[in-house]
Amino acid sequence: MANARCQRPKLDEQLLLMYRQYATLYIIFIVDNGENELAILDLIQVFVEAMDRCFNAVCELDLIFNMHKIHYILNEIIVGGMVIETNLDDILSRYKEQCKLENESDQQIQGIKAMAKLRHQINLEGHIKTLQKNLKQGLKTATKT
Fold this sequence. Notes:
This is AP-3 complex subunit sigma-1, variant 2. The protein is α+β, with helices and mostly antiparallel strands. Helices cover about 65% and strands about 15% of the residues. It is built from five helices and five strands. It has helices at about 35-55, 60-65, 65-75, 90-120, 125-145; strands at about 5, 15-20, 25-30, 80, 80-85. The strands form two sheets. The protein has a three-stranded antiparallel β-sheet, covered by helices on one side. The protein has a two-stranded antiparallel sheet with strand order 4-5. α3 packs across α4 (about 90-120). β2 (about 15-20) and β3 form a beta hairpin. It has a single domain, classed as 2-Layer Sandwich (Beta-Lactamase). The longest helix has about 35 residues, at about 90-120.
């Protein structure tokens, strides 16, 4: 069961610190004083459920080693301080699209690295220069005879 609390930071009375505890995870949002507290708690719930589905039982290590993926999820939910999506299926489909693009990009980068390594190993430019030099020498000796 999740614990939820609201607390006013002492730095600024215009802000409200809201958090929920899920096992060992604490999800904290700092919002404007005028925000609906129940809506923010629901937003935290949506965020945690989305992470839970993406990481199959989210834990601290998922947050640490996949911060960019956490940002993908949060950016699908909130844009410019406005909540734009709370439907988990839509959030997850966009997340999967982003992961697919990331994997394709990684594969392309690996392909480019492999080609560069192969090119370095083969040294085509050096072989072509050697062939040109040998061809010129062969033509010179052929014209002399």
